[in-house]
Structures are given as structure tokens and as C-alpha cells.
Amino acid sequence: MYSKDGENYFIVDAHIALWDARPENQSNIHGKQFIDCFYDYHRNLGPDEEHWSYEEFLYQGGERLMKDLFEDGYVDHAIFQPAYLREFYKNGFAQVEEAYDLAAANPGKLTYNHCYDPRDGEAGLDRLRADHEKMQFKGVKLYTAEWYGESRGFKLSDPWSYRYFEECRKLGIKNIHIHKGPTVRPLDRDAFDVADVDHAASDFTDLNFVVEHVGLPRLEDFCWIATQEPNVHGGLAVAMPFMHTRPRYFAQIIGELIYWIGEDRIQFSSDYAIWSPRWLIERFVDFQIPEDMTEYAPITTAQKKKILGLNAAKMYDIPVPAELRLPDADETTTGPRQPERADLAAA
Amino acid sequence: MTITQLERTRRAAAVSEEDIRRALGAVLDPELDEPITDLGFVRSVAVSAGPEGTQAVVHLRLPTSFCSPNFAYLMASDSKDVISALEGVEKVLVELDDHHDSDLINAGLAADAGYRGTFRHEAEDSLEELRQTFRRKAHTAAMERCLTDLLRKDPGLSETDLGTVRLQDLPAARNTEALLRRRAALGLPGGGGAIVFVNHEGRPYPPGDVPMALRRARATRISIDGNAHFCRGLLRTRYEGSGDEQVHRPEGAEAADHHNLLPFTVKEIHS
């Protein structure tokens, strides 16, 4: 829990990882390129005093993770969102077993989400059933740009993706987290396009689709589909640290999200270990939309509480102390929220 | 010196590194809608005299190894095309450095294999539709900048009023010029009587739809400006000194983007 100015915030970090990107686990140059790309994100968007050495960044281990999140980072509960990257790392990028064991040892603090790849076909479905029987996860993380032999990605609207969603439905896996990335086939189209999420969300209305990074770099396309689909949510992984480098851009991201999808469908994430939650939480609680941006209403303390933890807690049935809970906003389920609040011309 | 040798020297001298860079100024990052030269994506340009004219070697660089390979290919192949089109150029080698698809793209460029020849089974058709998608986004953002400027200047205007603003109502300014360029790229009319707020086919919006369309356009503008500055920043982190070659982008700029305009400070030395 984080407390400031007499207000208490229940914190759920909805996107964390336990990865191993050390050279001995890299399968090829792409393993190095991938972690180097993350390290540039880390250095570019985080404040200087929060920068880690490259060696620290390659691997943290469970002990350090627990310290950074729960001792130093105010986090009450965190959710693993593994990216396996089988073509880049020998034993996978996300350390699935280690993360599962850590979550099993700390059930009050950690939730383990699994990952699968629909290109594994029938065998993958059997595996998913077996994994679920053992691990009992409520959510999965799908990385649509993952390489797989000749293939460099898949879409959520592919027939096999649908077979897997049907299986998720049967097993009670209700939260589908999606990360979009480049190199999705065919290359003729925009790899970051979120249109396939729209199809899947319309056809599986009983599943929640959490688009990580709020669709960045396609914020506009994400907002447009999410406003029409009440089961599409936005995860703030990678968007949060813009608070530091580009606060006006961050204000616009938050302002647009609150306008298009409302305060009940946005989830805080540090994207640990790219960044640590401590400074992100402190700064978000202090954050305000700049006064000259009259097109957005100021962000309220209640909205911050929902984003920092209550929204994800609700999706994952994480118990929240009664005095910290808040009711849902009295808003439309689709379409822009209270547009009159954010009318530039009325300002 | 024989006539032939003289002629060769003249031809080789005809195309300079400056000429190559100027030509590369016409190559746009389709997503960010800016010249690759302004973004700092041109890593090096070298020219030498060949038997039939100038030989040019150009290296390109991008903000991450995982920038979309289709866009990477577009910028590299467009670079090769604009340099090849210069009179006096005999041979062009364009190489993309440090990208996850560098080998594939560089081999495709060297063999003039084209997009489908380069990416084989990963490509279905062409990249024209993709280019068009981003031309439309660039136009949307340019339109929103002009109309929001008007709205901020004139408190008497409502969002709905913006649906009837004509090109002649816009001030002569950077944003207006940018809009006219983007309209031309889509084949939309540029006359003063033309309505500003139109879809990509040039159709205006019914008055009731204007505020929502403007909000959507705003999200597009925020996205493009945000991506443009993020990509610039990542390039500076990845390649030390690359910021010196970036041209400042005023649209969406914040304090952190004035990296090369900050005064140089020296820490106090205590003896």
C-alpha cells in the first residue's frame, strides 16, 4: 500500500516479469537484440537515478524481485505476464517455472499468468489443459509477434487463436493479455494494428482482453476499438514512465483513455524489470494534467486509486480491504465517457 | 590526363556527399511522416569515383533492432531509389545496420529483389496500402493541428463550427503548409474554398459527427507526435551523438526533446 496526504492506495502491478536474458541463455543474436532494446527503453524513459547496470538488467532472480516490488515498491499484489520467446532464448525469456514457484510460495502477493502459442495446434491445447490443471491460472499473456519457425507472428483472429479462446472459456481462463509487436505476418500490414483484438473481443464477450501498452504505438486505434467493446481494457506497461520524460504526452495518453474507455478499465503496470514500481507509483500519485490542457478534466484521486490497483484487483478477484474499495463510475459501457467534461470548446 | 579520365573525374565530382544527403531528404519514415535525414537515421554517406561515375555507400540506422521490418525495408529501398535516380551515380550500396532483419533486407536490396523478392512468403502483396494508411493518418493529424489552433485562438468557436472551416480561413503558418502537403499526397484539392475537415476521400462530416471525428483525429495526432519523439529519443540512447544529426520537431515537443538546445554546464570544481 502507498499512502500520501492522508490517502491510501491499494497497489496492483498488473504486468511484471522474471526473465533471464544472460548470454548463456541467448540462442542467437536476436536474444541480445531483444534485451538490448529493453535496456534502451529502460535508460531512455527512466530517471538517471533509477538506471541499472546492464548486468543487473540481464537477470534479477526471485529475491530481488520480491524486494523491488514488495519491500521497496509499495506493491500489494503483482501479476506475472510471461513472454516466452522460444526462438531467441534457450530456456525461454520469461522464467516460467521460477515465476510459477515464486507465486505458489507467495499466493497473497503474486498471481501467475501463463502463456501459450496457438501455432502449437492440438498438441498445444493438450499442453494448455495439463498446465492449467497444475497451475490454475486465470489469465494468459499472448505475444502476437513471437517467432515460430518460419512464422513471425499470429493474429487473434486466426482460426487457431479462436480454438484456444474456446478452450480458455472452458477452463475458466478469463483474462487475455495481449502484447503487440512488429514482424507479424503478413508484413504488408501494420504489425501494431489492433483490429484483430476487436474481432476476438466481439466474439468472446465473456473474456476480458487487456491490451498491454494501451496499444502504443497505436493509441488512437486502441481507443477506438476499446470504446466500442466493453470487455477491452488497457494496460499501462511502458506508458507509465512517460510521466518522467514526456509528462505532457503522458497527460494526453491518460486523458484520451479516460475519455474513450473510462476510469474502470485502465490498469497500472511497471513492466518490471524494465522499470521498478516505486518511483512510478510515487510520481503517478503526484501527477496532474497540465492546466493549459483544457481538453482534459483534472485526474481525480479516485481515478488514480482505481488505475493503481482497484481495477486489476477486480478483474483478478484480489481481496481489497473494505475501506480502500471504490464503486464503479456511473458511466456508459461503450462510447466516450462524459464528453462534456472534456470539451475543449467549453473551456 | 586523357579526355576519358577527365570525363570520369568530372562525373565523379558531380555527385557529392551533400547531393546524396539532399536526395535522402525526400525519403520519409512512413509512420512518423518525416524525412529520414531529420530523424538521424542516416548513419553515414561515402562517395568514391568509379569508372562510370560516382559510387555511393550509405548506411542507415534505426531506433531499435525490432522496428517494423516492412517500414525498415521501405526506407532502405526508397533510399536506394532516390540515389540511383541522381545523374552521375554509377553504383549505390544501401545497408541497414543493426536490425533483426539486416541480413535479409541488405541482401534483397543488393539484388534489387523488390519487396516480395526480399521477404518471400512473409509478403502477400505490396506495401502501397500500408503507405496509404499512414498518409491518411498524417493528413488526419495535420488537419487536427490546424483546427485545434483555431479553436484555441477563438473562444467563440464551437467544435461543430469546425466542420465548415475552409482552407482560406487558416492562417499562413507551418501547420497550414503541412496540411496542404498532406492533402496533395492524398490527391485532395488545395484551393482556398475547400473544406478543411474531411475524411481521406475528401468528404466533409455532417455537423453532428464533427466533435467525435475531431476527438478521433486528436488521438491520431497525439499518437504520431508521441511516437516521433519516442523514436528520436531511443535513437539518441542507442547511438551516442546521433542527436546532433536530428532536426528539432516542434510538434509535440517537451522539455526533454530540447536535448541539443540545452546549455552546456560545467560542474563546480572544489579545490
Q: What is the class of chain A in the CATH system?
A: Alpha Beta
- Proportion of strand residues of chain B: 5-15%
E-strand count of chain B: 5
**Helix content range of the residues of chain B, please?**
40-55%
CATH architecture of the largest domain in chain B: 2-Layer Sandwich
Terminal CA distance of chain B reads 65 Å
Report the biggest beta sheet of chain A as strand number plus sense, adding barrel if it closes: 5 strands, parallel
End-to-end CA span of chain A:
36 Å
Q: Estimate the mean pLDDT confidence of chain A.
A: 95
Low-confidence stretches of chain B: 261-271
Question: Roughly what fraction of the amino acids of chain A lie in strands?
Answer: 5-15%
Largest interface: A-B, 48 and 53 residues
Instruction: Tell me the CATH topology of the largest domain in chain B.
Output: GMP Synthetase, Chain A, domain 3
What would you call the quaternary organization? heterodimer
CATH class of the largest domain in chain B: Alpha Beta
Order of helices and strands of chain A: EEEHHHEHEHEHEHEHEHHEHH
Can you count the beta strands of chain A?
Answer: 10
Main beta-sheet annotation of chain B:
3 strands, mixed
Organism (chain A): Mycetocola miduiensis
GO molecular function, one term (chain A): hydrolase activity
Biased composition (Basic and acidic residues) (chain A): 338-347
Protein name (chain A): Amidohydrolase-related domain-containing protein
Model description:
The complex is a heterodimer of chains A (about 350) and B (about 270). Chain A is of the alpha/beta class and about 350 residues long. Chain A has one domain: TIM Barrel (Alpha-Beta Barrel). In chain A, about 40% of the residues lie in helices and about 10% in strands. In chain A, strands 6-7-8-9-10 form a five-stranded parallel sheet. Chain A is globular. In chain B, the strands form two sheets. Chain B has a three-stranded mixed sheet. Chain B has a two-stranded antiparallel ribbon with strand order 1-2. In chain B, helix 7 runs antiparallel to helix 8 and helix 7 crosses helix 9. Chain B is mostly helical. Chain B folds into two domains: about 120 residues, GMP Synthetase, Chain A, domain 3, CATH 3.30.300.130; about 100 residues, no CATH class. Classes of the chains: A alpha/beta (about 350), B mainly alpha (about 270).
